[in-house]
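Worked Example 4.2. Consider the chain below.
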Amino acid sequence: MSAIVLSFGSILPLTPEEIEIKETTVNTPVLRSAPAPAVSAWLSDAQIDLTFLRYLGTVTITVANAQGIVYTASVVADTGVEWVIDTQGWSAGDYTITIVRSNGQTFAGAFERP
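Applying the procedure from the previous section yields the following structure tokens:
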């Protein structure tokens, strides 16, 4: 699975679109089967909704575009914890969302804000 770029055309969607978040840590051991997803992420017209699907401990969430970081937070990510990122006022363009655990394990996804 690879990160996908969500494209919405010229208007924001009425229903949320999924942002695929995948592990991007370098030197990750090869597994015989894909690990269960750690984070579910959905982009709607005014926010990103994150749900942590398993315990990750303290994580740093960063959202950036070509101009730099637009959002950062430190969260204790446990199974079922939900986190909302307000995207109102963000400029149009491509963004990446990165979630980094204290042990360096990294998850990332990409999306486009029209």
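Confidence is low (pLDDT under 50) at residues 1-14. Strands lie at 17-19, 22-23, 39-43, 47-52, 57-65, 68-77, 82-86, 93-101, 106-113. Compare this with Example 4.1 before moving on.
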